[in-house]
Amino acid sequence: MTSQRHPAATEKHKRATVYFDATIHQALRLKAAATDRSISEMVNEAVRVALAEDAEDLAAFDQRVAERSDSFESFVRGLRQRGRI
């Protein structure tokens, strides 16, 4: 492990211990070798993508906060009243 691939903890990089299922770890090691990337790089990218998706979801919720919301029960009652079910 070179210092370039695994920099010491700095303001930009923090160390964490993560436990992977053995088969997931094996897949990560193989992909890291095949793509000339570290497992840390791949995990950081995956977490960034997941957090970006969460941010998009939260923004969508914020945009829809003023929309009227019906309960499931009232929705089903309305379907019945309109003869849809």
Structural notes for this entry:
It contains 3 helices and no strands. The chain has 85 residues and is mostly helical. It has one domain. The longest helix has 25 residues. The mean pLDDT is 89.
The H-and-E topology, N to C, reads as HHH
Quantity of strands, as a count: 0
Please indicate the count of domains. 1
Looking at the chains present, what oligomeric state does this protein adopt? single chain
SSE order and pairing:
Blueprint: H1 22-35, H2 39-63, H3 72-81
How would you sum up this structure in a few lines?
Helix content is 58%, strand content 0%. The protein has 85 residues and is mainly alpha-helical. It is elongated, with a radius of gyration of 23 Å.
What are the key terms here?
85 residues, mainly alpha, 58% helix, 0% strand
